[in-house]
Design a protein that fits this description.
This protein is α/β, with parallel strands linked by helices. 37% of the residues lie in helices and 14% in strands. The protein has five helices and five strands, in the order E-H-E-H-E-H-E-H-E-H. It has helices at 18-30, 58-69, 86-95, 122-134, 163-184; strands at residues 4-10, 35-39, 72-76, 109-115, 146-148. It has a five-stranded parallel β-sheet with strand order 2-1-3-4-5, with helices on both faces. The chain is globular, with a radius of gyration of 16 Å.
């Protein structure tokens, strides 16, 4: 089985982020699905400014290079005020510029997130899917993954304590792997 390299962008820069714990849990489970997950850092990106494009910041060049080197991209998003966190949108803006140079174009992607709320990160994920569609990144449409976090569900080192949730995440990762394989398969 081919192992695919997946760049992971966590839409929170908080060290205590529940979405960072979710990303760690997915990394722990990823080997079973034939995926190798590596975080792509976004903390040090400046705010996107078109005026900076002629002298593209090194952190933005590193972001684009990491996305280009990956077979696929996984976005782990919190939901802030019913939308995508600004830091995540900022990263996508840098990755997509200058126009026509986005490493996301044609790159398979998937979106997942966790929240203590009943609807998880559903609205943020929908906004993110709209952005990814515009950037021409073929997204995993089904199954969707909205994880409701409860105390102790995911430990700091990424262990998922609920067997049902662990099984769901493992199945979701396999579906993502199948999506990547379909998207990267040569035409004809």
């Amino acid at each position: 089985m081919t192992t695919y390299r997946v760049g992971v962008i966590v839409g929170s820069i908080s060290a205590n982020s529940i979405n960072r714990r979710l990303a760690t849990a997915l990394e722990r489970l990823s080997g079973q699905a034939g995926l190798e997950l590596t975080e792509i850092p976004i903390r040090d990106l400046p705010l996107f400014d078109h005026d900076l494009e002629p002298d593209y910041p090194a952190t933005a060049r590193d972001l684009k290079a990491a996305i280009a080197a990956a077979d696929a991209v996984l976005l782990v998003t919190p939901e802030y005020n019913r939308s995508v966190p600004g830091v995540l949108k900022n990263a996508l803006d840098w990755a997509s510029r200058p126009k026509g140079t986005s490493p996301l174009a044609g790159k398979p992607s998937a979106v997942i997130g966790t929240s203590p709320g009943q609807v998880g990160t559903a609205v943020a994920q929908q906004h993110l899917r709209s952005i990814l569609s515009f950037l021409n990144s073929p997204e995993l449409a089904q199954p969707e993954a909205y994880v409701r976090t409860t105390p102790g569900l995911i430990t700091d080192d990424g262990e998922v304590t609920d067997p049902g949730t662990a099984d769901f995440l493992a199945r979701w990762l396999r579906a993502f792997r199948d999506h990547i394989a379909r998207e990267l398969r040569p035409l004809g």
